[in-house]
Amino acid sequence: MKVAFVVPWYGEGIMGGAETLAKTTAENLRRRGIEVEILTTCSKQFMSDWTNDYEEGLYDVDEVPVRRFRVDPRNTKLFDKINLRLMNSLPISPDDEGHFIKNMINSSTLNKFIARHASQYVFFFIPYMFGTTYFGSQICPERSFLIPCLHDESYAYLHIFRQMFEAVRGVLFLSEPEMELAMSLYSLDKERCWVVGAGIDTEINSNEFRFRRKFGVDEDFILYVGRKDSTKNTPLLIDFFSRYIELGHKKLKLVLNGPGNVSVPDRCRKNIIDLTPVSGQEKYDGFAAAVATCQPSIHESFSIIIMESWVCGTPVLVHGNCAVTKYHCTRSNGGLYFQDFDEFAACVDFLIENTDARRRMGENGREYVRENFAWEKVMQKYLWILHSFINGLGPFNMTRRTTLSITKNID
């Protein structure tokens, strides 16, 4: 039996956390002998109007078969109108919910493929709010699992997604707060819900001096990695950092690494270094060189960024209104959190002035990742789910509902 990850887009250079998660999980399952394929569209990224950037067909991406299907045409104007209301947390009608998901990224040919070959696959749909997930998971819900990457946002409250969550065979969460949110929003059978986490490479080698030489950064700096836009709270970070510099901390820098554009005030432009997005080794070297990695987003279901920062021995600074990143910080003792500017400034002061405490927090974070999210730990859980599904064990046996836990290590 094959495993299929169904994701809106897939390939090299994709920055999204859900897409990265799908790619690395598929590759690691394949290394462990599981026959894995990717089912995706011919589009490359989220945009106002979907386009077919690839030719339809079968590809090989890092030794994983990838089947690409054409994107359906849609009413962009109607979608943008409804989406704008949702982005501003305004109510929409049931009819608008239908129009929204119909005009989200969809592929009729992808759905036909799922329908024709359903008996050959176990399907993992990721993330929750796209048409590829909503319509695809309805074709054979008894063989469909969600990896929702859920966080507290207006989309999560739509009735259409409640129906989807409640219909599928199982839901795999990346963190405990994510599962708690889903339980509060939907009527979910706990036997069909598991916290599996996300796999992280714990053998990263990083060199702070290599980063400083390449990019000419000699001073202490706070690092931000990710999309530079309002959905990630980057403007708030820039505002708080600018105010902090105005208090007299003239030597500290803020290094931004990621796609997108944000407005930088003239008064602190020389203190903000906006890199052309770098990844791989240069990204890891940046983590190692930073005083701390700041993740200001309040909409996270896991945050690969803070995990990678910890593996590189660097503490993190997160927003206190994000249940997930705050949970990771308090559970690991690997970072600090803030809710307003005064708390932000106090946290940065502490991190700069307390080198030993900063080092201990980084070490705590590294150990937390190794204990919970090393690939062997996460793969054990996926393999258990697949084994149990195929053999009709536990909650997968619809006539014998036995509660089994996968939060413990599997021998």
Cα shape: globular
Q: Give the low-confidence spans.
A: 397-411
CATH topology of the largest domain: Rossmann fold
- Total beta strand runs: 14
Radius of gyration from CA coordinates: 22 Å
Counting DSSP H or I runs of 4 or more residues, the number of helices is 15
Biggest sheet record: 8 strands, mixed
Q: Structural class of the secondary elements?
A: alpha/beta
The amount of helix comes to 40-55%
The fraction of residues in strands falls at: 15-25%
Q: Main sheet: which strands, in order across?
A: 3-4-2-1-5-6-7-8
What would CATH call the homologous superfamily of the largest domain?
A: Glycogen Phosphorylase B
Q: Give the ordered list of helices and strands.
A: EHEEEHHHEHEHEHEHEHEEHEHEHEHHH
Distance between the termini: 23 Å
Query: How many domains make up the 3D coordinates?
Result: 2
The averaged pLDDT comes out at: 91
Q: Can you tell me the CATH class of the largest domain?
A: Alpha Beta
Compact description:
The protein has 15 helices and 14 strands.
Q: Could you list some keywords that capture this structure?
A:
14 strands; disordered C terminus; Rossmann fold; 411 residues; 8-stranded mixed sheet
What features would you describe in this structure?
By secondary structure, the chain is α/β, with parallel strands linked by helices. The protein has two domains: 2-199 and 375-396, Rossmann fold; 208-371, Rossmann fold. Helix content is 41%, strand content 15%. The strands form two sheets. It has an eight-stranded mixed β-sheet with strand order 3-4-2-1-5-6-7-8, sandwiched between helices. Helix 11 links the parallel strand 12 (292-295) and strand 13 (316-319). Helix 4 packs parallel to helix 5 (131-139). Mean pLDDT is 91; it is low at 397-411.
